[in-house]
Amino acid sequence: MFKKNKKQTENIKEKKVRTVKVGTHKKTVIALWVVLIASVSFGVYKNFTAIDQHTTHEKEVIELRLQDTNGIENFVKNFAKSYYTWNNSKEAIEARTQAISGYLTKELQDLNVDTIRTDIPTSSTVTDVIVWSIEQSGMDTFSATYEVDQQIKEGEQTSNVKATYIVKVHVDADGDMVIIQNPTLAPAIEKSDYEPKTPEADASVDADTVNDATAFLETFFKLYPTATETELAYYVEGNALEPINGDYLYSELGNPVFTKDGGNVKVKVSVKFIDNQTKAAQVSQYELTLYKDSNWKILSNNK
Predict the structure, then answer these.
(1) What span, in angstroms and rounded, lies between the C-alpha atoms of 255 and 270?
(2) How far apart are CA 19 and CA 16, in angstroms?
(3) Which fold, 60-185?
(4) Which of 78, 150, 185, 226 is the most exposed place for a label (fewest CB within 10 A)?
(5) What is the pLDDT of residues 132-180, one digit of tens each?
(6) Which residue(s) pair with 147 in the sheet?
(7) pLDDT tens-digit map of 49-88
(8) Between the CA atoms of 265, 268, 272 and 276, what dihedral angle is there, to the nearest 10 degrees?
């Protein structure tokens, strides 16, 4: 019994385990990697192309809107000249009605039928139209704020009148325009109360530097009106100040204020010139950065 079992055990040990070899299919794997890389690269390219096309489209839309705005401004100005010009004769009223019909919807034409009548004792001449702002208020609608200056005559008396209005303008895809809201009273554009902060001199700029820099500025601005680009190169770095080639005569500096800026000196200064053509004084303001090596030089002008 013992021997038989031993023999059976040996037979079991001699049996070989079957194995299955799986090939790596190297060429197929490489091909798949190539396809994957190509797909990813194409996706990235499409993404950047789409972004570039989108940016280009936005730029075109912005430029188109700017052109539309210029057209709207001219449209509103021409309308205002016709709308606010009148006299009380029947022929003039008919001519005005015909003129403004080229700008207004049929509804607004009907609304304005009796705004100027033969029994009105005044006549009006438009002396100026200023378009203050144009803002998009809808997909194809723009609100224009404008000011009209009129000279009103009643009998022998003449007066100047100024008022501000808003109209809405519809713009078709092909650029055609029509006013869809009648001139509506709006607040006048007033002068702002803003006053810039007055600069203060920096105590770190010593008196000798101030005197030296002031002398340099006086010399420079005497030459500046007629200086060529070559001549300016001695005083100015790059294009900090470009030639003006004007018929001006230097008069004086006005209260230069110097401040320290690292190794440089900043100066805010007014320069008075005499215009030889008009004989009027012209005061220009500059904010310059100066640097001195062997001589003073203007590094920049904060325009």
Answers:
(1) 7
(2) 9
(3) Nuclear Transport Factor 2; Chain: A, (3.10.450)
(4) 185
(5) 999 999 899 999 999 999 999 999 999 999 999 999 999 999 999 999 9
(6) 130, 164
(7) 555 555 554 554 444 455 558 999 999 999 999 999 999 9
(8) 70
